[in-house]
Specification:
By secondary structure, this protein is mainly beta. Helices cover 13% and strands 48% of the residues.
Length: 211
């Protein structure tokens, strides 16, 4: 874990003041150890593929109790462009995908990192989130999982608190009987990091030392 953090520091130093730093995380345990607070999270999941029993898109402070949800009929293997926008003037977060628009107001502004998480539980299923662009800068990496699997891309170095726009595309695929609920899903988590070894300092604070 310390090695991964050291690599991020070197990337940030080499890339310049506003260069994005990218790291892949392989487990939720590592993700949970990094995050102090999840400020908001946008999710796309298989659900029941547009049926009335449950939802497929959600947005809020957590996926366990999302503030707003929408129905969406996922099509097998179809590329779905999306955007996630934070407006500092209003405090509103807007998540748009497939003609659906979800809006959530957050009073929190202390955050600085994005985690794109993909998870496929069953064999024969996959989810890919790619073509990621943050405020006009290509992230240069995708988050993808083939069942059973999980992948998390950690995006650091952006000026998220000033407002941001993240765009990309999502593809959910399956063979045979489609999965349901959150067995095929992606989340985009915007978070504040925990203290990582320098007393009184967060990762955002450490990055600020090199700007």
């Amino acid at each position: 874990m310390r090695t991964a953090l050291a690599c991020i520091v070197l990337l940030a130093l080499a890339g310049g003041a506003h260069a994005l730093s990218i790291q892949h995380i392989s487990s939720d345990a590592e993700l949970n150890a990094l995050i102090s607070d999840t400020i908001f999270v946008a999710e796309g999941r298989i659900g029941d593929r547009g049926g009335a029993a449950t939802f497929e898109l959600d947005l809020g402070q957590s996926t366990a109790a999302p503030a707003v949800t929408r129905q969406y009929a996922w099509q097998n293997g179809v590329v779905e462009p999306f955007s996630l926008v934070y407006d500092i003037a209003t405090g509103n977060v807007t998540f748009s995908l497939g003609g659906q628009t979800l809006v959530y107001h957050t009073p929190f502004i202390n955050f600085g990192d994005i985690f794109v998480r993909t998870r496929a539980v069953y064999a024969g299923t996959s989810v890919v989130v790619s073509d990621l662009v943050l405020d006009g800068e290509s992230v240069g990496s995708a988050s993808s999982a083939t069942g059973p699997g999980l992948d998390i891309v950690w995006i650091s170095g952006g000026t998220l608190m000033d407002g941001f726009t993240l765009t990309g595309s999502a593809v959910l695929s399956w063979t045979g009987t489609p999965p349901s609920q959150s067995n095929l899903a992606f989340q985009i988590k915007v978070a504040k990091l925990a203290v990582i070894g320098v007393e009184g300092s967060t990762w955002g604070g450490i990055k600020a030392l090199f700007r």
